[in-house]
């Protein structure tokens, strides 16, 4: 029973760290990254369709993204979807291919992005700590019900704390990496 509680807490914490990685991929830094378009849906014949299902996306240069739709009639809708997505990107097209130049970020914008990333990371740190709290309450409940000895519960609480510390450290490392990526020119 104790092992199940600890394993469940570990799995939930790992899912939180993975969710953080996915969420941070969508935040635009100064470099071209296709993951900023993960949430973009294009109105294609009345159906909201993910952009990557309508076109091939590529990064030929560090500050340029090209989008080549498989159906040229979708170009206008793709441009509209990118403009509506609030990514701060302006598409230009020649009728066959859409080019998006990634503008360099201003110093203020970079600092704003770092603050935003820090807030997101803090939310995930809180989520990990909440998972720890829930696991600790379940373990203490086992002791109270007489289903586990005090020594086993104490050792298990230490194990949960170690797992928590490890996941908080991972979140801190992810933040530092994203901060470095955002602040470099």
Structure description:
The protein is 58% helix and 15% strand. It is an alpha+beta fold and 185 residues long. The strands form 2 sheets. The protein has a 4-stranded antiparallel beta sheet, covered by helices on one side. It has a two-stranded antiparallel ribbon with strand order 1-2. A hairpin with a 2-residue loop joins strand 1 and strand 2. Helix 1 packs parallel to helix 4 and helix 3 packs antiparallel against helix 4. The longest helix has 39 residues. The N and C termini lie far apart (51 Å). The mean pLDDT is 90.
The mean pLDDT is 90
Q: Strand pairing plus helix content: what structural class?
A: alpha+beta
Would you report the number of β strands? Answer: 6
Range of strand content: 15-25%
Backbone CA Rg: 22 Å
Shape: elongated
- Low-confidence residue ranges: none
Strand order of the largest sheet: 3-4-6-5
Total helical segments: 4
Fraction in helix: 55-70%
Report the span from N to C terminus: 51 Å
Largest sheet: 4 strands, antiparallel
Give the SSE order as H and E letters.
HEEEEHEEHH
Oligomeric composition of the shown chains: single chain
């Amino acid at each position: 029973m104790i092992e199940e509680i600890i394993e469940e807490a570990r799995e939930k914490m790992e899912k939180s760290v993975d969710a953080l990685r996915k969420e941070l991929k969508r935040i635009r830094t100064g470099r071209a990254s296709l993951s900023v378009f993960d949430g973009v849906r294009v109105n294609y014949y009345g159906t909201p369709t993910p952009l990557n299902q309508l076109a091939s996306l590529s990064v030929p240069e560090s500050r340029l993204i090209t989008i080549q739709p498989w159906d040229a009639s979708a170009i206008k809708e793709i441009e509209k979807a990118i403009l509506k997505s609030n990514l701060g990107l302006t598409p230009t097209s020649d009728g066959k291919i859409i080019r998006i130049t990634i503008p360099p970020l201003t110093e203020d914008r970079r600092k704003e992005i770092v603050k935003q990333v820090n807030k997101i990371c803090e939310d995930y740190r809180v989520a990990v700590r909440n998972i720890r709290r829930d696991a600790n309450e379940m373990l203490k409940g086992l002791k109270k019900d007489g289903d586990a000895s005090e020594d086993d519960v104490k050792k298990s609480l230490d194990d949960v704390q170690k797992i928590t510390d490890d996941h908080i450290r991972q979140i801190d490392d992810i933040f530092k990496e994203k901060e470095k990526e955002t602040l470099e020119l």
